[in-house]
Each structure stands twice: as C-alpha cells, then as structure tokens.
Design goal:
Elements: H1 9-30, H2 32-40, H3 51-54, H4 62-66, H5 82-88, H6 91-104, H7 106-117, E1 119-125, E2 131-136, H8 137-153, E3 161-164, H9 172-183, E4 187-190, H10 202-207, E5 212-216, H11 220-229, E6 239-243, H12 249-262, E7 269-274, E8 283-285, E9 296-297, E10 304-308, E11 321-326, E12 338-344, E13 346-348, E14 361-363, E15 374-377, E16 380-383, H13 387-394, E17 399-407, E18 417-424, H14 428-442, E19 448-452, E20 464-467
Parallel strand pairs: 3-4, 3-5, 5-6, 6-7, 17-20, 18-19
Antiparallel strand pairs: 1-2, 7-8, 8-9, 9-14, 10-11, 11-12, 13-14, 15-16, 17-18
Helix pairs in contact: 1-2, 6-7, 8-9, 11-12, 13-14
C-alpha cells in the first residue's frame, strides 16, 4: 500500500474528492447552520463533488460564525439524528455500526454512534479564543494519526524524548503537540503550566533526557538562554520545534546559534509547526528541506485548503492571499470555506523537492490575522475585520474606488478608529445605510465616511487597506 503522503497526484485528488463528497452531504444534514447557508446560496450539498464545485459556497468569516449561535458557536457542531446517520454516514461508519449491532445489539450501536458523533473534547480557537472547535472520539483518533504524520515530517521517531515549553493553555498548539507525541509514541514531558514562566521548563529536563524541545516561536531564543542559566544539560537536543508561523531565515539562524551556544548539538535544527485558526491538527515543516523554503505539509484526506483574495474573496490560483479552510474528514465542528484571516504565500500541489511527499503545502510567508487588527477602542480591545469593509464596499452600488485607513488616538480622541474614503455619488440615506453595513461587517462603525472625487482616492481598482497607527 502506498503511504498517505506518497500517493500519485491523481490518487491523492481522488481520495480528497471522495472525502469531500461524503462529508459535505453529512455536514449539510447534520448542521442547521450550514444547511441554511447552502440553501441561501442556492447550492445543494449533493452537487459538491470537487474543490471547484465547493467554490460555489460563499466563504465565511469568523465574525459571521460567532454570530451564528452563542458562546463557542454551538450551531457549528455536527449533531445528527439517527435517521440522518442512516441516510448520510459514510460506508465505513455504517459498517462499524453494523458490526456493533452484531456484537452487542443496541448497546453496540450506541457505542459506535457516540464515538463517531458525540463531541467529547474542545479547544479554544478564533482570534480572541471565542470559537470552540469540537472533537469526537473518532476525531481524537484522527488527531493521533495527524500527530504521527507531523512527527514523520519533522523526522522524529519513537526513540526521541520531547520536553515541551508550550503552555497548557487549551489551544491547538498545546493539544497538537500533546497528540503529536502520543501518535508517534514519543516520550513527552509537558513541563509548563498556564501563567508560568520559562524557568519552570527546566524541571522537565530533570525528568527525561531531552532530544527534542517544543517552544512558542516568540520564546525560542529566550528559552535557550534560560536553560543555559539554569545549567541544564542540552547536549542531546537535536531539534527545536517552534510553534507558530515559520520564522524567516535570519530569525531561524539566530535561534540555531542561541541553542548551540546553550549546549545543543552542533547540527541542531529549528523546525516550525503551525495551523490557522479553526484548523484541527498542526502542520509541520519538512526536516529534509532548507529553512523556510518548502512550506508546511498538510493532510489532504482530512481537510481542504484554498487561497482567496482578501478583498474579493475569489480564489487565487498562484501567489499569496487569505488561507481558507474546510474541515472535510472531521466529525465534531463543521467548517465550510472558513476564511482564516491568515495571509500565506500560496499553496502548491507539487511534490516536495526535499522529501518527495505529494501532499499540498502551505508556502511561506505566513502572517496571522493579516486583515484583523486588534483595535484599542473606548470600550476596550476589539478585533476588527477589515475584509468586512471590502465585502460591503465592493458590493455597494454607486461606490467606486475606496480606501480604509486604521488610525490611532489623537489629542482629541482616545483609542483606535478607522476611516473610509470612497468615490461615488451617494445620498445621505444611502450613506447612513452604508455606515450600518460597515459596522456589522467590520465589527465597529467607521469614524468617518468621506466621499471624494475619483482622483482624490488613493486606491487600487479593488480597494486598499492602510494601518496608520
């Protein structure tokens, strides 16, 4: 059997399309939120049989998801009734149910249904941790497998010992590393509690002879210095796994030098693991590649990725844009064309030139929350989504070129605000309606709506954002 990451492009795409077809019909039946959204778009889930078909579904932003159903957006959970399972579950699930009934009758059926569809674990997601991503028992099995896959990409083995400095904060970066170690049968010490400093991590090195260290990307250099000051023996450490967007070449070189100075092996590697908001498992950088060159290796049988233009929402064939995520293959929380807000350098289906894996790769550079600044408003910090302004302005009749500027406090005004400058002829009633639509789309009403001549609007044809803080 060909390994999951060495399939031919045709076989990889066939499996991806098979997973997508079955998952889409189930998600539409199992979630009223997605059923209603597809109906409004005039799309039947049964018609979606490929990534190209999926593009008929309008992409969705976090702001829209959080409005869907209260804390954690429980409307996104896939919670089927038994008759829906009979009609829409995959053949594999139906076979498991049949075997459970043969073994234990109704009790066996209940065991399978609970394992497949009952959420039993959550991790906090979203820009401000307001979105809950749920896992069923079967999802946790998938997370184990994804963890083992990430470990293989990182070139880690069951003979390694991991000491993790990732705070136990309940987010994917913690649970992803936790299940990476479990899935790959790596001895792991998760040495840092929430709210505790890097000094606490030194205890982990007294419990296990570390060969691998995991640390938030922003703390990688500081952890090396902290452990050196604590006289921790690091001579066995050959890999530093940094959780976060892959660092650039210069930053990575500084990390390598810091760990070598602290006593790690001369050939110590710094490799990143990362995933966007809403994702279910961490992606890893290829250990065989030169730093920051081949990107993050993903899981085509567990998710479907796209890159879209941040302004128009239209797919981008090549080059950078807004990473968009569909959770095909997972049973807990359903996400269809979720615009993560993370800017990536692009996607490629070409085999990795370093390791030969044929899975899609997310290319550098990665910029989290590229269009979602945290503004300091009079009511406290608030996450804005400037893509909402693009959605409103680009679809508004009578609006020509436009520009959105984020501005900081002034002597007369406390807090951040944004100003919209646009060209066009709009009546006062139209401007008031536009103001309300911008408030809903961005998460805050604009400080000013300035109507100018075309020549006065410093903008491209599709609009532009500027952070003037």
């Amino acid at each position: 059997m060909v390994s999951w990451d060495r399939r031919s492009p045709a076989e990889r795409d066939r499996i991806r399309d098979t997973v997508l077809r079955g998952w889409m019909t189930a998600a539409a039946d199992f979630s009223p939120f997605w059923s209603e959204r597809l109906t409004r778009a005039g799309v039947s889930a049964a018609e979606i049989r490929s990534p190209e078909d999926l593009q008929r579904v309008p992409p969705v932003r976090e702001l829209e998801l959080l409005d869907a159903g209260g804390p954690g957006s429980p409307a996104l959970l896939l919670r089927p009734r038994e008759e829906q399972i009979k009609a829409r579950a995959s053949l594999v699930t139906l076979m498991r149910i049949a075997r459970g009934i043969r073994r234990e009758g109704d009790g066996g059926k209940a065991t399978v249904l609970l394992g497949e569809y009952k959420p039993i674990h959550l991790h906090a997601s979203g820009r401000d941790r307001r979105l809950a991503i749920a896992y069923t028992r079967s999802d946790l099995d998938r997370l184990h497998r994804a963890g083992a896959r990430a470990a293989a990409v990182l070139d880690l083995s069951r003979g390694d010992h991991l000491v993790s400095a990732i705070p136990a904060d309940g987010t994917l970066r913690f649970w992803g590393l936790y299940h990476l170690a479990l899935g790959a049968s790596i001895l792991a010490v998760h040495a840092r509690r929430v709210g505790h400093g890097l000094e606490e991590v030194a205890v982990g090195f007294r419990l296990a002879p570390a060969t691998v260290v995991a640390v938030p990307v922003s703390e990688a250099i500081r952890l090396a210095a902290t452990l050196a000051d604590a006289h921790v023996r690091l001579s066995g450490v050959h890999t530093v796994v940094v959780a976060g967007p892959p660092p650039d070449v210069e930053a990575r070189r500084a990390m390598v030098e810091a760990w070598q100075a602290a006593g790690a092996t001369r050939g110590v590697r710094v490799l990143a693991v990362w995933a966007p908001v809403g994702a279910r498992a961490l992606w890893a950088e290829c250990a065989a590649a030169a730093p920051n060159t081949t990107g993050l290796h993903t899981y085509p049988d567990l998710e479907l990725l796209e890159v879209v233009d941040p302004v128009s929402g239209r797919p981008v064939d090549h080059g950078p844009g807004d990473l968009t995520y569909t959770s095909a293959g997972w049973h807990g929380t359903g996400l269809i064309r979720f615009r993560t807000g993370d800017r990536v350098g692009g996607l490629t289906d070409e085999p990795c030139p370093a390791c030969g894996r044929t899975v899609p790769r997310v290319l550098p550079d990665v910029v989290p929350a590229a269009w979602q600044p945290l503004a300091r408003t009079a009511d406290g910090p608030r996450r804005l989504d400037l893509r909402g302004a693009a959605l409103v302005l680009s679809s508004e009749p009578g609006v020509g070129p436009w520009r959105v500027e984020l501005r900081g406090p002034t002597a007369r005004r406390a807090g951040d605000a944004y100003v919209v400058q646009l060209a066009g002829e709009l009546a006062p009633a139209h401007l008031r309606a536009l103001d309300r639509r911008l408030a809903a789309g961005v998460g805050l009403a604009p400080l000013q709506l300035i109507v100018s001549d075309h020549e006065q609007v410093e903008a491209t044809a599709d609009g532009v954002f500027a952070d003037r803080r």
